[in-house]
Amino acid sequence: MTMWHRMIPKLVLGIAAIALVAAAPAGAKVEGDTIIIGSAISFSGKYSTNGIHASNGYNLGVKRINEMGGVTVGGKQYKLEIKYYDDESTPLRTAQLFERLIKQDKIKFLLGPYSSATTKAAAKITEKYKIPMVEAEGASRSLFTQGYKYLFAVLSTSEQYLASSIALAAEIAKKNGRDPSDVKVAMAFENDPFSLDVRAGVIDDINKFNMKIVVDDKLPRDLSDMSATLIKVKALNPDLLLISGHSKGAATAARQIKELQIDVPLIAVTHCEAAKIVDKFGASTNDFLCPTQWAETLSYTGKYFGSAADFDKLFKAEYEGYKNVPYQAAQATAAVLVWKEAFERANSFDTEKLRDSLAETNMQTFYGNIKFDQTGKNIAKPMVLRQIQDGKFNVVAPTKWASHPVNWPRKAQ
């Protein structure tokens, strides 16, 4: 049975949940012995691949909590259930659906959508109605400069995504007798909030080492062609090529790097796993560097899933078709765990008490440590950098987290 077929019963259950909640009395937040959590997520449109990864993660978190006895509030045990809507990867639709979840469906506990753009749309609504949301897929640092009080994010923010690749390039330069300031960098970033934040973080780190930027292209959204940029890269021979364009951008980059025979010693691309570039393009993706929020080889553990490796094994058993578990799925599961503990600390369904309980989160999980600062972002978990080595994703940076040495220079396939 494929991953897509496994999704069908869960979507049907989500539809059933919609009918159930629609029949609830006005103002209901809990149905009998079930806590309903709401989310609008991308089951269609440009973010659908990652939206499905995220929903799989949410669903596995709910399943595990329910198997372990559910959530205890006021001495009573409750099961969790998620009510989904499809936001079609459109921020305007996301905002409309979060408003519907809160005002029409009377749901007071929310999980975030997929992407920074849709999370920004959702956050405006949750702040308006003072409804807490735990999000796992909106990494834009600008989300955490707005003074939001009801937004909590388990993931590391976007400016950290490719920063470790700059430090790695500097480290390699020093080992080879070069000054890091001699390193030439080419950059191609989709013109969307997430990728532009990634770029801002990269610029900060490039400036620390006084590296030279030889290409700095902002590319159109829904990235389907970057050949013009890659032709410039081929002519200018940079030491490092950085690309961020979500799943479609990663697939486009991998395809055209192969077609144009781009030979750069280090290439770092966001969303490698989610785009399944190894499956699609095989050995030509070897030695790509791929930032990740999480990896199964890390030494993270928690009481719900055990180790990172344990979660990886369970997720693959639950959802067939995954050779690598995308970090989007892992962090979605972590978001559900945060809600579970917040309910029990608050011992209440009152949204203000739950907001305060979420703010007090300090927990260890298979995904990493989770602790929120005053802006709602997780300050307890770093990003890591993996390299595709013979088709496998191995952690190579930062050094203290590395499971394998980095392959350098990359050998064009």
Measured by DSSP, the beta-strand proportion falls in 15-25%
Give the count of helical stretches: 12
Strand order of the largest sheet: 9-8-10-11-12-17-18
Let me know the number of strands.
18
Largest sheet geometry:
7 strands, mixed
CATH architecture of the largest domain: 3-Layer(aba) Sandwich
How far apart are the first and last residues' alpha carbons, in Å?
Answer: 33 Å
What is the total number of structural domains? Answer: 2
Low-confidence stretches: 1-28
Shape: globular
Question: How much helix is in the residues?
Answer: 40-55%
Order of helices and strands: HEEHEEHEHEEHEHEHEHEHEEEHHHEEEE
**Radius of gyration from the alpha-carbon trace, in angstroms:** 21 Å
Q: Determine the structural class based on helices, strands and strand pairing.
A: alpha/beta
The CATH H-level superfamily of the largest domain is: Response regulator
Mean pLDDT across every amino acid position: 92
* CATH level-3 fold name of the largest domain: Rossmann fold
